[in-house]
Amino acid sequence: VCNMPDVMAKLGLSVGTEGKTVVVQGLGNVGYHSAKFFRERGGSKIVAIAEYEGAIYNADGLNEDEVFQHRKATGSILNFPGATNLAKSSDALELPCDILIPAALENVINGENAERVQAK
Fold first, then answer.
1. Are residues 12 and 98 in contact, defined by beta-carbon separation less than 8 angstroms?
2. 108 confidence band (pLDDT: 50, 70, 90)
3. What mean pLDDT comes out for the span 40-47?
4. How close are the terminal C-alpha atoms of the chain, in Å?
5. Beta bridge partners of 49
6. 10 Å Cβ neighbour count for 116?
7. 68, 78, 93, 110 — which has fewest CB within 10 A?
């Protein structure tokens, strides 16, 4: 989708993933590898990661490898150095971003929160 000029123009975004802000829900197989792809190969900035224990945010970007290692060492993504803890995991879904990757629990975007989702 990011390489479709007509779709990206409607969203007010440039073609490609370079410089896009990304929020990832889930740091399992899909979330981790999606974040890694968008950051390393796509040139995007991962600004938030959510997991069942909470969510973290850093406008300057997060490195999924470092967050994963922090979680492995501490049992949580919370209190990751340089990041802000968000009150609830679901708060990450409502952050302004270009791309939202819901890669964990199903039905996290629903009739109760869909209007608050700010992803383009």
1. no
2. confident
3. 96
4. 12
5. 24, 56
6. 12
7. 110
> What is the pTM (predicted TM-score) of this model?
0.94
- H helix intervals, 23-77: 29-36, 64-74
CB atoms closer than 10 angstroms to residue 34 = 20
Strand segments (E) across 1-120: 21-25, 45-51, 54-57, 84-86, 99-102
Q: Under 8 Å CB-to-CB from 82, ≥6 apart: which residues?
A: 58, 60
Distance of alpha carbon 101 from alpha carbon 63, whole angstroms? 16
21 close to 64: Cβ distance less than 8 angstroms: no
Who contacts 106 (Cβ-Cβ below 8 Å, separation ≥6)?
none
| Cα gap 12→108, rounded to integer Å | 25
